[in-house]
Amino acid sequence: MSEKLKPKTLPGFMELLPNEQILFNKMKETIQKTYEQYGFLPLNTPIIEDAKILLAKAGGETEKQIYRFEKGENDLALRFDLTVPLSKYVTEYYDKLSFPFKRYQIGKVYRGEKPQRGRYREFYQCDIDIIGDGKLSILNDAELPSIIYATFKNLGFNDFTICINNRKILNGLFSSLQLKENSASILRVIDKIDKIGADKVKQELLEEIEDKKVEVIMQFLKIDGDNNKKIQDLENMGITDETFVEGLNELKTVVQFIKLFGVPEENLKIDLTIARGLDYYTGTVYETFLNKYRNLGSVCSGGRYDNLTEYYTDRKMPGVGISIGLTRLFFLLMDNKIISAENESISDALVISMSDEYEKVAEVATILRENGIKTQINIEDQKLAKKFKCADRLNVPYVIIIGEDEIKNNVVTLKNMVSGEQKTTTLEEVINIIKR
Amino acid sequence: MSEKLKPKTLPGFMELLPNEQILFNKMKETIQKTYEQYGFLPLNTPIIEDAKILLAKAGGETEKQIYRFEKGENDLALRFDLTVPLSKYVTEYYDKLSFPFKRYQIGKVYRGEKPQRGRYREFYQCDIDIIGDGKLSILNDAELPSIIYATFKNLGFNDFTICINNRKILNGLFSSLQLKENSASILRVIDKIDKIGADKVKQELLEEIEDKKVEVIMQFLKIDGDNNKKIQDLENMGITDETFVEGLNELKTVVQFIKLFGVPEENLKIDLTIARGLDYYTGTVYETFLNKYRNLGSVCSGGRYDNLTEYYTDRKMPGVGISIGLTRLFFLLMDNKIISAENESISDALVISMSDEYEKVAEVATILRENGIKTQINIEDQKLAKKFKCADRLNVPYVIIIGEDEIKNNVVTLKNMVSGEQKTTTLEEVINIIKR
Are strands B41-42 and B48-50 parallel, antiparallel or unpaired? Predict the structure, then answer.
């Protein structure tokens, strides 16, 4: 016996068992097909980029988390999101693209975070973005929620809420109160409203801001009711700040068009407290929650930004985008038993033989495959019981058994692995049964 | 104007324009769907692994090419193939898998080769392998060519040849001639037969080996005719070396079963000169050639190996596998104009408006999407001519135009972008036309 290395997947890297991988892939394909249904173009940029290009914009946490290394004379890094590569791509291929440029990208990104349960160092992002050349109609901000809606419907969810806000409303409100400087700390307090309640929020705000202004903020935070009512209440606040008015008008237009794009009223909610970070987003912002599992946090977020490519070109490239963090979403859904991979099978059928009828196994499998049935075979010299154990592990719904009698009578035996029923009949009928 | 970084994708990294990416993805999905048709389970292992694990087996060229770096205390590396990660996976999850374990993996791998035209540092491999626990029936070696066959058929090729050999025949031949020690250099000479011809091969062999033995090798190399004739000729050589006889019997069985798995005679050829490297493969070996483009080299190769996991466990895990180097294949097919992405479109239709009929655009697009039509919209404040230019760049087959008249009469105008034909009719009819 020689000394062996014990193989181990690194912590923070998701590696799935086959049945889990089948389910993961189904979700990934559903997202991809939905994005394509809306006419978004596929991109697949490299995972390794020039570190200087990738880090043009980064700083702070991102810079610490990045995987950066040298190879020969090259200073390289692994992408930490799909937005910077998009920014690079749009600048590099500007002349060959048509604008608005609508692309999706589904791929792995890398962040060397502290390993924690449910936090991954390698994870899939599923992004779509619409990039304008110089300008981009606000109506695009209304199309994205319809893609979020279709995606989660297609993933099998019904009870979810797309929350929408416009950063200009918050910014305009603070500006109208001469609180621009304080906006970061105010937003931090507001963000806790779900956890600590309105009263505590008010208390904390009073420590920092004069009474009158806190009253206005609290009036703003208490705005409630359906989307129309909220817009009405915002108008009734009588704020004339230009940014506020612009944000409110944008929100009105976006909400109107989201309906035209087919999102039902009950799946869309104006949430005036959503800010999504301080620097990046400049207008519309989105978050999406599974209503029964709001504790999972937002499962799809995004928004409008003013300039995608500022580090690479003087051209103005405004955009709007959304992102699903699929690896984390998959973990959360599995961990909370909202989805299960227990019965996932890649194959429709497994063909096995009683003893050594392997020629017939090959022939039968070939015919099944030609008929569009996903077919695995077992042609090992194993006992029948072991072959059935394999079938169980594979979760395969049907096993086709071939023995001497079957060959003599030109039939096969079909076993339904769910019901346990067994039937000896022609291959033709078996194909019909499985296809049903 | 601030100073800007000029964004540039690294050399040796394939980055495609959207229409090319559409075609690339179609090919990738075709391969995936075919692999699944044969019941292979999907895996998706991390791109980053512990360097020690990844390099257990490596050495020489591989070690130089690998992307290896440190992050915190971890010695990390990017995978350079999908076989070592499979080896790790099978050892790590042994108790949870059923054997034979049949998996496919399609993913990017990394090798820091010298950048050359058509050689990539990041490239897709599309692998399938069958791994046995202790032993693995030779019949599995016959199933893989049927997957190669189905894959290239599904990719749109007809005129291709799967070449098959068995390393034991070559090894047994050399052993029977007491030339085991020379096998490496003999194989190198034999390998040139297509380029330099049989006479020159003979000449070179005579420099090293005695006449009589060269005669036997030349007799072997001259074996010709259809597959049955070749097997007959091999038998007629009267070699009794155990390894030779075993290899010949395996080859006979594999050729017989390949037919049962549905591969036509004309797509399969015994090629006794294929060796595929010296150390790794131990039995059956495959190469695949597009007959009209033999100069492209093998487009799908693989073979049988004795032990996948020898660096990690004492358990014997024999396997057989094939691999398609998709990135390189795509480059070669594009470069030789065998495929073209010129007319690739992700969308079936683009909806535009004459001026500002955006509500109707949203409504029409939503109905089209609900009817399964991949639909992009253009809701920018752009001139009609510019919108049509966009449509051209997107290669979209149909443009749906909405203007005041269309809204008044509750119709839309459909333009076929290939024929140039234009028709004003109901949305219902438009859906039927596009679906046809």
Answer: unpaired
